[in-house]
Amino acid sequence: MRIDGERVRRTRWIHAPACVVQVEVDAVIPVDDPTEPCFEPEVVEFLREVHEHAQIGDIEWLKTVGKVFVPTAA
Question: What's the pTM?
């Protein structure tokens, strides 16, 4: 489903016990309601997929879609 409006890039941070992932996604400022950007269903599904991979600690897959930050020992 494509929403009419201006596309803008947004940074999303996905937090999980094993890591934090920074991904860039497209948001849409809808013509009908320009008060704030929203995500299309495909982007929401992508963010869910990233979250699932972060939860299981699939670092190699996560590196293909964004920046991955893992905790280190102090």
Answer: 0.88
**What's the CA gap between 33 and 53, in Å, rounded?**
33
- Dist. CA 31–CA 51, nearest whole Å: 29
Report residues of the chain scoring pLDDT below 50.
Answer: none
Domain parsing of the chain, residue ranges? 5-69
Q: Kindly give the residue spans of alpha helices, DSSP state H, lying in 1-74.
A: 41-55, 59-63
**Positive or negative CA dihedral for 4, 44, 26, 61?**
negative
